[in-house]
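hey m, so remember when u said the tokens were messed up on ur end? i reran from scratch. heres the input so u can diff it against urs
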Amino acid sequence: MSEGRDNRTLVLTPPGAGAIGVVRVVGRDAAAIVSRLFQPSSRGFQPPSPGLWPARNSAQIETCGALPGDDHLRYGQFVVDNEVVDDVVVSLGRIGSCPAVDICAHGGIRVIERILETLERFGAPLCITAESPAPIWQVNNLIERETVDAMSRAKTHRAVRFLAWQREHMGRQLERAASLCQTDADRARKLLQAMLERYGCARTLIEGATLAILGPPNSGKSTLFNRLIGRSVTIVSPRPGTTRDWVTGSVEVDGVPLTLVDTAGRHETREDLEHQAIESGREVGERADVCLLLLDGSAPLSDTAQTLCRICGSRPRSLTVINKTDKTDLECVLDPAVVWVDDACRAGSTIHVSALTGTGLDRLMQEVLKTLGFGDWVDAAAAFFTARQRDLAAKVLSDLPQDAETANRTIRERLLNGD
């Protein structure tokens, strides 16, 4: 191995700004390199000597004893050229037989960049995970490796906790299912079927879902969009069709990542706006995971609103939302509108909100989660979360109970430990 390639730096958290950024230094000199830059808070701030920059040759690097032992955490500062870059928490451990040090800093982009630049200067250049001298987390089978890969894409803390549980328990569940294939095929089938049924929610928890806001012009789509994401992104105006292009934004609801799509009109004339609203309902509704049909509860239902009700009524994941419940003259229009909407959408009930004041939005988002399948979801239960796992599980189920031996091998050799 060439000089300077013994040590590597990896970024364990997704790119971009965040609350916490985690950097891992892996290699034979990992502890020595970080010790030159870490100042534990328990000893007070003592700037490192400017003349003690470590050489790349490990024989010339001496640790200062600042790092904690394996699996212990220590709070302090990351110090560069007598300047405190950030408050950090560090821990020293191993990936197999390879030393590794984790540096947990604030997730500001510039802070992480400064840490990475300094570590490279000290002999631990940034590398792509695939080129690491050791995996980020030690893995014992393919399921654990897929769990680690999914963690790097997870968008919420809840998703990471879910995957951590899978990494710990899913392998044992599959081993159990494999053993049951030859002793109790019915129980093996039930166990695998339960894991397979949870696939959709597991993927949503990791990758997120798309929530499209549909509705006729001036129903309050942009107001609802801005209220849900917590900041003004689209222009809100009483003039129909103010938003000229579809706008997207991200929101997290109970740890489930959602991408909102505001399908407001893009044309000038009223006739074009009505047509665009209907076409948006057809086009986006086919691609979105959940559609919110937003109707103005303070005005009679227009022909466009009625057409959208029919479109959304044919979709299994649609919610009808009556907006503008803050209007004082609402009751004169709301009752007949609700009856018509319930009948057209076959919903049996509607959700009443005020996008302007926020009334009813908590219930709305809980209904969205139920529509996505999270009504009785439990994080701490085994669930397939990749297409590979899903497809192989389906094959096992098709083999049972006629070919129990093949089912057993598929689980052990392909699902759990395959390529």
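this time it looks ok to me. The chain has a mean pLDDT of 78. if urs says something different then somethings off w ur setup not the seq
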